[in-house]
Design brief:
The chain is of the alpha/beta class and 417 residues long. It contains 13 helices and 13 strands. Helix 6 packs across helix 13. The structure holds adenosine-5'-triphosphate and ligand LCLUPRNS. One of its GO terms (cellular component) is mitochondrion.
């Protein structure tokens, strides 16, 4: 462990630290020596003089264990820490270096709580793959320093905390490929296989995969995917299209995974997204079989998996998303390509009205869409940026019948049906 940490901190001063404040990242760096006037980064602007701050970064070599530990750590800290600890998500990364992201938490200890908090942190660091740093303020309140806890307490190396420029990419973008969004069945299966011992259900999920998949096989009949946020009318439209076109209706995740979906929805992003990715490949095989007999309509597919994953991994405004044309928006090479993807778009107020009138239970991400405008905007924009195929937007605000007619026009024009 100590060797692993030593390697990690070798490039410590090239790292940028990012703390989530009001749903958007704030950045700071550390230097061995301060050059020029000290300017405290704004992360510390509201911290009282007598308070200390701490960061915990998860640094497990095994990503499944690391992600699960990071996920559980929030609950653990929330229950153990005294009120007023201001727990926030944080991360550390080397700008532009893919795979360099470490995830963790940032907290404050108010005077009077410090020994309790230090006991919790010491215990955590001794038993788990976590690197703890403490932050304290100089006497004159002008300078913050960071100290790595794993070193001997008698002679800790202190780094000066300095402001950092906003990096070109949101930190999460550095670790997104094959962590949040999977680009091959093999990568997604690898994650699920690693979970076999901790989540026995993964064996049943993997058992649903066909023995071979051929993404290059061209379906005889058109395959039309309907995408959109919840309550935009996908179920209504897909059922009407099935009836109008004499098509087969499929969905992703497929029916055969329904029993395990709730289980994977409670897992951290790495495992949850791998589950949905595998679901797309199982649906792809069903499409292959059905599209030799009739047109196929699919309720959600790859666009949903990628758009929700990207929009969740990134925080803050739409400008924090990976830029248009970035690698993360490309279609996986080994996944069947639909003939047409229709994205239903709807005014947020009308969507809310439909949600209320339907009154069904919602997943955490659907709940988040309701409460967090920025999240909704990021999902919508990510949908629009995905290519290979890109989606065609369709205004879903007219009556169900009119939306159906418009969809049929698009399908006839594109798929010659
Ligand atoms: N064009 C429309 N005009 C008015 N109401 C509609 C229209 N289309 C669907 N609805 C109603 O809006 C609600 C949501 O529609 P639907 O269940 O089809 O959406 P969905 O996109 O499948 O949702 P989810 O993804 O959450 O399953 C339902 O009550 C449905 O009757
Ligand atoms: N192919 C899919 C389908 C769904 N998801 C995820 C994205 C959302 O969190 C949620 C929405 O699904 P719904 O409740 O409308 O069935 O499921 C996905 O990642 N990939």
């Amino acid at each position: 462990m100590a060797r692993h940490l030593k390697l990690l901190v070798q490039r410590w001063s090239s790292r940028v630290f990012s703390v989530e404040v009001d749903g958007a990242p704030r950045y700071f760096g550390v230097r061995e020596q301060l050059r020029g006037e000290p300017v405290p980064p704004d992360v510390f602007s509201e911290v009282q003089k007598q308070d200390r701050c701490y960061s915990l970064l998860v640094c497990s070599g095994d990503r499944v264990t690391g992600d699960r530990f990071h996920w559980e750590l929030r609950d653990r800290l929330q229950t153990q820490l005294p009120p007023g600890s201001g727990l926030r998500s944080m991360s550390s990364f080397i700008p532009d270096q893919k795979g360099s992201l470490l995830k963790g938490y940032f907290l404050q200890s108010q005077a009077g709580n410090s020994s309790l908090i230090e006991d919790i942190l010491t215990d955590l660091e001794q038993r788990n793959p976590v690197l703890v740093c403490s932050y304290s303020q100089s006497e004159d309140g002008q300078q913050w320093t960071q100290c790595l806890w794993y070193q001997s307490e008698e002679n800790p190396v202190r780094f000066c905390v300095v402001p950092s420029e906003t990096p070109k990419h949101h930190p999460s973008v550095l670790n997104m490929i094959n962590s949040d969004v999977f680009y091959s069945l093999e990568e997604a299966c690898d994650v699920l296989k690693q979970c076999g011992d901790i989540i026995p259900e993964t064996r049943s999920v993997l058992g649903m995969l066909p023995s071979s998949l051929d993404a290059r096989r061209k379906p005889d009949f058109p395959v039309i995917v309907i995408e959109g946020l919840d309550a935009t009318g996908k179920t209504t439209l897909t059922e009407s299209l099935r009836d109008s076109l004499g098509a087969t209706l499929l969905r992703s995740p497929p029916q055969c995974l329904s029993a395990w979906r709730g289980r994977f929805d409670r897992e951290p992003p790495l495992i949850r997204r791998a589950f949905y990715a595998v679901g797309n490949y199982i649906t792809a095989e069903q499409i292959n079989q059905e599209a030799s007999k009739s047109p196929v309509i699919v309720d959600r597919f790859w666009h949903s998996t990628a758009a929700y994953a990207i929009a969740t991994a990134v925080t803050g405004p739409v400008s924090n998303l990976p830029h248009e044309g970035a690698e993360v928006y490309r279609w996986p090479g080994d996944l069947l390509q639909p003939s047409l993807v229709i994205l239903l778009t709807l005014d947020p107020e009308e969507r809310k009205r439909r949600l209320r009138s339907r009154g069904l239970m919602k997943t955490d991400e659907e709940e988040e869409l309701d409460h967090n405008k920025l999240f909704r905007l990021r999902v919508e924009e990510a949908y629009r940026r995905i290519v290979g195929p890109a989606c065609t937007a369709l205004d879903a605000s007219p009556s169900a019948d009119l939306v159906l007619q418009q969809a049929l026009l698009l399908i006839r024009a594109k798929c010659h049906l």
